[in-house]
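Worked example

This section walks through a single chain of length 292. The input is the sequence exactly as stored; nothing has been trimmed or padded.
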Amino acid sequence: MTTALITGARGFIARRLAPVLRAAGVRVIGVSRQAGPLPGCNAVYMAALGESLAPVFAAERIDAVIHAALDSSDHAYRTNVEGTRRWLAEAQAASATTQILLSSLSADAEARADYGRAKHVLEQDFLAAGQIVFRMGVVVGDGGMFARMVESARRYPVVPLLDGGKQLIYVLGIDFLCQVLRDTVLDGAGLRGRAWNLQQPTPYPLAEVITAIMDAYGFRRLLLPLPARPMVRLLRLFERQTLVRLPVTSTNVEGLIQQGRRVLPSDFARFGHAEEPLAELIRKARQEFTGD
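Given that input, the structure is written out below as tokens.
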């Protein structure tokens, strides 16, 4: 029996992936900062990025590792890079055949955000080790960035759109992602040594995504276009003058501007899944959120 280890096992993608793997006959081991059982996991071990997984590898024979853990603290860049590197090396030493890094389309050496730069550095490590990188856009489902977009539209009567929401957003469905990961765990030999772009080929302007969310969930909100560059300057000024942390930083906005201009190739067709309309992806996500 194939045994797969998922780091960050309480995260959105991991929670959806574990039952899919188990249904395919895979023994699933979760690694989480919190104790307690998880649906789809045969066993759960406690560990955070920066700590060793040696006890897990001593107790379990692991065939595949899905690296989904993410730190979002003040020291996120260092913790994510050094912690994931350590787990990559420990899994190699334990003879895990397949290792998968869940990365991002924002991964870039010149990324404004720490997240994108950290993912870029880690991609080089995984590719040098002959392993697999999956770059993702916004995963449409009941968690992650998409859930934050839904929550923002739900909570606030006004939704700000930087530069009118012209930034291009690439999406993929959570079901598609879990199917790709399942198939790779079972047989990923032909995918090793490459970074694969998993997003659907057609991007959508951010304004169109927000409008589709509002239509699907029945929200009625005012969309307020705002110029992005003045917002960056205002945020920088605020960040210099106060210790209060805002939910959005000047670096976040710069990253959105940078990322929203990029037209990216897609490997979506390589994995034999039909592209789904945005409205259908959001309808499925709404059903997962609400059960109706």
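What to look for: The radius of gyration is 19 Å.
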